[in-house]
Amino acid sequence: PKTKKYGFHLTIVNFLEGMVGYLDQILVFHSLGATQLAIYAFALLPVNKLKEPVLMICDLAMPKFSVKKPAELKKNLPLKIFKLLLLMIPVIIFYWLIAPFVFKFFFPLYTGAIFYSQIYILSLLGVGYLISNTALTSQMAIKKIYTLKISTAVLDIILLIGGFWWLGILGIIIARVTSEIIRAI
User: Fold this and answer.
1) CA 114, CA 103: separation in Å to the nearest integer?
2) How far apart are CA 90 and CA 18, in angstroms?
3) Whole-model pTM over 0.70
4) Dihedral of CA 160/162/165/166: which sign?
5) Which residues have C-beta within 8 Å of that of residue 127, sequence separation ≥ 6?
C-alpha cells in the first residue's frame, strides 16, 4: 500500500515536470514556426544524448541508494556529484570545440543550431541534480520531492517565458541552462 501511494505521488510530480518540459517547444513553434523549432530541437539533441549515460547511472544506482540510510547518502553523495561535475568539464570543452564540425558534417541544414547547442552544453554542469533526485526518489522522500519539483517547475516556467520574451530561442536556451544549474545547487 505504501508503494502504491508513493507511485501515485511520483506520477503526479512527473506529469507536472513533463508538461513544463514541453513549454519551450510550444513557445518556439507557435511564435517562430516549424523551421525555428527544428533548429531549436537540433541544438538540444546532441546535448540531451550526452546526458543519457548519467541517466543510466542513476537508474543503476536506485537499488543501491534505496538500501542506504539518508544520513549515509547525505554524507557520500556530494563528493560523487563533485566528481561527476569535474568529469563534465572536459566533455563540455570538447563538445564546444567539435560542435561546429559535427553540425556541418551531419546536419548541414541546421548550422544555425551550432551556437545554441554550444550554449546548451553548459547545462551538463547541472547533471548532479539527476543523482540527487535519484537519491530522494529511492528514499521515498515525497515531501522533499514535491518541494523540489514544484519549485523548479515554477522556476522553469518563469525563466522560459521570460527568456523567450527577452531573447527568443537564445533566451530559452539560457533559461534551460540556468534552471539546470539552479536545480543542481
Assistant:
1) 7
2) 30
3) yes
4) negative
5) 51, 54, 84, 85, 88, 180, 184
The string of DSSP codes covering 98-123 is HHHHHHHHH-GGGGGGHHHHHHHGGG
Which residue stretches of 22-141 are H helix? 23-32, 34-66, 70-106, 114-120, 128-138
Cell of 139: 528514499
DSSP letter assigned to residue 67: T
Whether the CB-CB separation of 138 and 150 falls below 8 Å is answered with no
- Spatial CA neighbour of 165 closest among 17, 27, 30: 27
CB within 8 A of 35, min separation 6: which ones? none
Across 112-141, average pLDDT: 94
Question: 136: buried, middle or exposed (CB in 10 Å: 19+, 13-18, 0-12)?
Answer: buried
Question: CA 182 to CA 155: how far, in whole Å?
Answer: 9
Give per-residue pLDDT as tens, 60-74. Answer: 999 999 999 999 999
* Helix H or strand E encompassing 1: none
Nearest 5°: CA angle at 86, between 83 and 92? 140
